[in-house]
Specification:
By secondary structure, the protein is an all-alpha fold. The chain has four helices and no strands. It is found in: Golgi apparatus membrane. It comes from Balaenoptera acutorostrata (Common minke whale). Its main location: Golgi.
């Protein structure tokens, strides 16, 4: 099933996007900073969310990992 139609998969994809963008920005800041507007601006915004809300994103990643590893029947 596509991640668009499954809510848990959609949240997983969004969390992975936020974490990946924040990691790439920590390695190469100029790569994401030059594209602050337009379609590629989504990646810059995800990186900013990952940087500013780091404890909340980490907690969501841990909760998501447990929900994937130990699903409820």
């Amino acid at each position: 099933m596509s991640a668009i139609f499954n809510f848990q998969s959609l949240l997983t994809v969004i969390l992975l996007l936020i974490c990946t963008c924040a990691y790439i920005r920590s390695l190469v800041p100029s790569l994401l900073d030059r594209n602050k507007a337009g379609l590629l601006g989504v990646f810059w915004k995800c990186a900013r969310i990952g940087e500013r809300k780091k404890p909340y994103v980490a907690a969501c990643c841990i909760v998501m990992a447990f929900s994937i590893l130990f699903p409820t029947p």
